[in-house]
Amino acid sequence: xxxTYSRNVFIPLTRTCRNSCHYCGFRKNDGKxxxxxxxxxxxxxxxxxxxxxxxxxxxxxxxxxVKKWLxxxxxxxxxxxxxxxxxxxxxxxxxxxxxxxxxxxxxxxxLREVNASMGLMLEQxxxxxxxxxxxxxxxxxxxxTIKVAGKLQIPFTTGILIGIGENREDRMYSLExxxxxxxxxxxxxxxxxxxxxxxxxxxxxxxEPPSLREMIDAVRCARELLPExxxxxxxxxxxxxxxxxxxxxxxxxxGISEVTPDYINPEHPWPQLKKIERSLNGRYVLRERLPxxxxxxxxxxxxxxxxxxxxxYSDDEGYRCLR
Length: 323
Description:
By secondary structure, the protein is α/β, with parallel strands linked by helices. It has a single domain (2-313), classed as Aldolase class I (TIM Barrel, Alpha-Beta Barrel), CATH 3.20.20.70. Helix 5 (139-151) runs parallel beside helix 6 and helix 6 packs parallel to helix 7 (212-225). It has helices at 36-44, 64-72, 78-91, 105-112, 139-151, 168-185, 212-225, 243-248, 273-279, 294-298, 304-313; strands at 2-14, 51-56, 95-99, 117-119, 156-162, 188-195, 231-233, 252-256, 285-288. Strands 1, 2, 3, 4, 5, 6, 7, 8 and 9 form a 9-stranded parallel sheet that branches.
């Protein structure tokens, strides 16, 4: 069995966010945005990466400081700045993957031109207390974005966050919603099964993270429910060992960076690939992919702006070319 991963550079464009999730340690809401020269510095450091992972708070331009920052640089909306930074990444030979939060159809359509794939965590398809101050975490709003991405044929990453106040039935229901979207539109390339990790200074800093047993159960349920073409991803820096989760049905470990930390979970450094390979005990083959998964490369789910890079970086099977 093959277990896939990608090499990326993680670019946190801004930590300003309209949501205030009770478990989030990323949000600062200070109105600061990475300048173009800062983004370029990140891109130049990418080494062997093929992916530029753009992550930022949802709808940061609702913040007056961000709105002014954009206006001073000739931008009307934050998505316009993201588009330009995506193009900058392409000029550096990197394939953008953007996690932008909830977006409208016209925004998704525009970013599709300059992204190999995009993402939005569903987290849970039920109302939870931890999202009571987060308008963008309304399940129906997030499901709509994922559905529209499917209609636009955007290779898409989503997933569930475990341990934020939901129960097993909620997890099953959330996975069933994702499976239905995947069956109807065929665009969901991977589903992340991510464990909640308590952050100091947040309202949930004392909450108990999920057990390995709960994680294994969620992975098994995901594998039973999801289409075969949809990969199941587990974050290798948030669990002690990925081997039990791979045995349960996971087959992807996401993006790993040699030059940037996981800015969402900075207290959990990326494991070395050699360590991951050793943990697989020779039972699985670790193969590098692009931010667009192999099946979507083979089926041509990408536009002209990034076609040259994808075709240069991929082999006949759609994996990262070794040459």
